[in-house]
Every structure is written in structure tokens, then in C-alpha cells.
Amino acid sequence: MPTRRAILATAPVVATSAPSPTWAQTWNPTGSVRIVVPFPAGGTTDILARLYAQRLTETLGVTVVVENRGGGGGSIGADVVAKAAPDGQTLLFHNLTFSTTTAALEYAGRAPHSIERDFAPISMGANVPMMLLVNAQVPARNMAEFIAWARAQTPAAFYGSTGPGSTMNLMTEVLKRDADIRLDHVPFRGAAPLVQEMLAGRIAFGGDQLSSSLGHIRGGTLRPIATLASTRASALPDLPTVREQGFPNMEMLGWNGFFAPARTPEAVLTRLHAEIAAAARNPATAGRIRELGAEPGGNSAAEFTAQVHGQVAAMRPLVRELRMSVE
């Protein structure tokens, strides 16, 4: 079983110097820039991508558009970027499920791309905690109550995820193993349709990043029972983590971040990083990100690369142990 340190993949901080203004300005986009979000509109990743697109449109001097390409736990949209021209005009904005889906597809022998070989990580856009949620009809306010409820259900209750191999799919399989309960999996193309089915009461248990579920939580239509993060969310300080509730194997760092196709020239990556990091520091953009219950990113490419590559490396043995199938 991967250690807590491995699953969190919190690599040591890599000291890097900020790019000089002259070097950062050596590349300019020649047309509109496309940010591919590998999930349907309305989820956290989509919301954050549109915040960045608005700011980057101003600073890059060209139109920056968001294109939603959902399906395959995020792998379909990611593959669009993996095969795009490495010219800085097509970017990927993905989240922590990139690590789990990649590991699951590799295990199944169906990976269309390599997270290490086919992408150039640029920077984290935001750190967003992942919430474990139940619909309002489930009488549970913590993990112990949910487990007791799930054990009493015949047939087994449904849980939803953003696709086979996604973070929620993997972490729920860990919960089923560690708590010895039955839950039946229903995959969706993204968090937005999953949340809608939870609100309708057809899915009992699921997960979502805090930013897109906070309104439902505050309105009482969805109930959080834990966060996967190592610390409590500032927006929900009374909500214990999975580790606090006795499930340390479910702990996982949340993130949303930018990638370019591999072989993108260094000058292009340098300019893109400079603009993304500046957007993360912009008071209006950063303020809006914090309103969504997230923390702005903007770390170095080296730090983000170490984080993502470390996380997928930690997921691979867990996927093999659970024999995760990707249909």
C-alpha cells in the first residue's frame, strides 16, 4: 500500500528563478488559444479554466477559449492535447483524476498516451479539496454513519464517479475494501452530471471538488461527510478529513493545472508559465478562486511536474492491487 507521503506526492520544493521579462516575451501566440477541459461544463475544472481564460485573454492579447471534451474519465480530452501541435495554441486544464485515470488505463493496456512522455506540465491553477458527498436522503453525517447505512442497503446503493479509473472510482474502491461494504458503480462523463443525479436522489454517494459543490452543500441539498485532503478545508472547518475518520488510505492531494503537449518549445512554456502565474496572483482572479473554496496556484513547472508525476507513480501500485477495470 502506498504511504501517505507517496499518495500525497508532495515533492520537495524545487528552487527555480522567475523568468526574466525579456525571455518571457520571446513568444507570442499567433491566433486564439484553446484550453481543453476534459469534462462537461459546470464542474470545478471548467469553472476555474474559464476564470483563467478570461484573464489570459487580457494578458496574451488574443482570445483564449475553453473547449469541453468530456468522457473516459478525462482521457478523451487529454488525448486531444497530447496529439495537438506543440505550439502553445492548445493547452490542457486537468485535475487530480488525471493521475488515477492514467494509472487505470495503463493497467488495462488501453492508455492512449503517457502522462510523463506526452505532456509538459506548466503550473497548478488551483489547489481544490475533494469532498465525499451523500444526497440529502441518506441519513449520514460522517463516514461511520454512511458505512453503517450502506451495509444495511439491499440491493447495494449506487455511487457515482467521473468515469472508470477516476479519483472517485479509485477512492471508493479503497473505501469498499477497507470498510468491507458493497456499493455499485455508475460512471458519468464529468462532475456536473454526477452532481445532478445526486441531487435527484438516484446516486447515494459521490465526490466533487469543493468549488462546484459548495453552493449545494450550503443549501443543504448535498451533505459532505469527509474531505480527501490532508487538512480540513477552510470553507468547511468542521468537516473532518478521511484520515481523521480512520481512512488514511483515501487521502489524496487535490489540484487543477495546465499542461501543454510535449515538445512545446521552452520559450513558449516560459511565456505561458509567466502569464499563468501572474493570473494566479491577480487580485481579482485569486479572490474569485478563494471564493470558490480553493487556493490559487502558480507554482513552478518543476514543482508541478514533480507533484503530478509523483502522484501517478503512487497510484499505479494501488490500481494493480485493486485490479481496477476500465471498461
Strand arrangement, largest sheet? 2-1-3-10-4-11
> What would the CATH topology of the largest domain be?
D-Maltodextrin-Binding Protein, domain 2
User: What is the CATH architecture term of the largest domain?
Assistant: 3-Layer(aba) Sandwich
Count of helical segments?
12
- Total domain modules: 2
In angstroms, what is the radius of gyration? Answer: 19 Å
| Topology, number of strands | 11
Please estimate the helix content: 40-55%
Beta fraction: 15-25%
Question: For the report, how would you describe the main beta sheet?
Answer: 6 strands, mixed
User: What structural class is derived from the secondary structure elements?
Assistant: alpha/beta
Short description:
This protein has helices at residues 4-8, 21-24, 44-60, 75-82, 97-107, 143-151, 167-179, 191-199, 210-219, 266-281, 283-291, 301-322; strands at 33-37, 64-68, 90-95, 119-127, 130-135, 157-161, 183-187, 205-209, 222-227, 256-261, 295-296. It has 327 residues and is α/β, with parallel strands linked by helices. The strands form three sheets. A six-stranded mixed beta sheet has the order 2-1-3-10-4-11, with helices on both faces. A three-stranded antiparallel beta sheet has the order 8-5-9, covered by helices on one side. It has a two-stranded parallel sheet with strand order 6-7.
